[in-house]
Amino acid sequence: MWKKTFAVGIAAVTALLSVSSCNSIVGNTAAQSTVDSLGNPIDNEEALVKKDTVRLMDLLDSLNKGKIQFPAMDSINKVDPKVAKRNMRDSIYRELNKKDKHIYLTFDDGPLIGSSAIDSITTAKNIKISAFLVGKHVNMSKRLKRDFDRYMNNPLVDCYNHSYTHAGNRFHAFYSNPDMATADFEKAEKDLGLKHKIIRMPGRNIWLFDDVRRIDLTSGQQTADMLGVNGYRIYGWDVEWKINGLSGKPVQSVDEMYRRIRNMLGNKSTLKPNNIVLLMHDDMFQNKKGQQLLSSLIDSLKQHKDYKFDFIADYPVKY
Ligand SMILES: [Zn+2]
């Protein structure tokens, strides 16, 4: 049944695209006033309409099993395409708003001082979190080996690959040799006994999975593609929270982070609608002040009955 609904949805969006494109030809004279030095139009109306439609298709894709009321094909041709598109977007938003929202709390660079506190908070709050681990940290001390074991044995913590050496924090040099970089991730996977082929690249906000390929800095591109070919999925983040680990002073307050998460879910500005990936680092939570802030953010988010905490392995949840 959903297949039929989905097919109608695709047809309706495609119809909107063609109607809008026709319309934008009419409006092209005005749009052409914005041109670059070579005379090519910059982000003209047609490009914007296309961009908007691609976004609608993406939103629709996340609802591919849902039941959504689409306007009849006849009516699309009769009404103003802008109005039709707005109606379409509103119905997709309405459907998405009825569904659960999925929050991925991700912690990078562990095990570090801070990891054991995160492990305890997760257990106390009974929520799932995702840890992107650095292989070499496990062997730096007995304490960190113990904290790594705690993560691995906690069913509420899922562990993923953040490389073996963390690129020695020389990211450009590291990614200039994709073979060596790939070998570094493979070493972490083997040493730590990781069960997922899921990576977050140090120093880069890169997404590469299914049909998604988002590269923030080109120097990581070749390594990302090689990892992709080798069967890895790579995840970046939608929003980052920064706290000074030693002082426990946050760059963004709990309230600010809470509002950003709520707003991004509300206006569908995350990479995948109704799914939000939050980046934090283990060393942010080495002191009591930082730990209290983390607990407090989790409590704020838990007030929403439709907010669920999920593992990155389940990203993105569709309906
Ligand atoms: Zn890192």
TrEMBL record:
<feature type="signal peptide">
    <location>
        <begin position="1"/>
        <end position="24"/>
    </location>
</feature>
<dbReference type="InterPro" id="IPR050248">
    <property type="entry name" value="Polysacc_deacetylase_ArnD"/>
</dbReference>
<keyword id="KW-0732">Signal</keyword>
<dbReference type="GO" id="GO:0016810">
    <property type="term" value="F:hydrolase activity, acting on carbon-nitrogen (but not peptide) bonds"/>
</dbReference>
<protein>
    <submittedName>
        <fullName>Polysaccharide deacetylase</fullName>
    </submittedName>
</protein>
<dbReference type="GO" id="GO:0005975">
    <property type="term" value="P:carbohydrate metabolic process"/>
</dbReference>
<dbReference type="Pfam" id="PF01522">
    <property type="entry name" value="Polysacc_deac_1"/>
</dbReference>
<dbReference type="InterPro" id="IPR002509">
    <property type="entry name" value="NODB_dom"/>
</dbReference>
<dbReference type="InterPro" id="IPR011330">
    <property type="entry name" value="Glyco_hydro/deAcase_b/a-brl"/>
</dbReference>
<feature type="domain" description="NodB homology">
    <location>
        <begin position="101"/>
        <end position="310"/>
    </location>
</feature>
